[in-house]
Amino acid sequence: MRGRERQPTEEELRAAYEAELKRVRVDDVLVQTVLSLISLGGRKAGLAPGSEDERDPEQLRQAIEGARTLLPLVEPVLGPEAAKVRDAVSQLQLAYARIAREPGEPGEPGEPGEPPSQAPREAEQPPGPGPAQSSGRLWVPGQ
Hints:
This protein is mostly helical. The chain has helices at 10-23, 26-44, 57-78, 82-101, 131-134.
């Protein structure tokens, strides 16, 4: 039976997993999570080519809120690249505002300017504005 390798044992898999965990940094996971939320948010906004049928305002809102919450933790790690990430979150916020104005979206208002039915509540907002928001350069729907 040449060419067939044996499957690793559970113990070998566990050891490989432990070795990987030793190398991974929390900063790396946080950055990857923010980037994943931005990518997924773009799809849920219908911004990615071929994702128009995936539009989901509630999922988009959650992606924005998650990225905004984690952004202050990853900005020091990202350094100058943080501006690109902030810009991507801003683009998602603009897309959300545009979607929220469209009548007929599932779970969305029928009247332009009316806040979405699943808008973040005040209690869910992170304490205080982030650096871009407090500078006056960032507009956030519903705030």
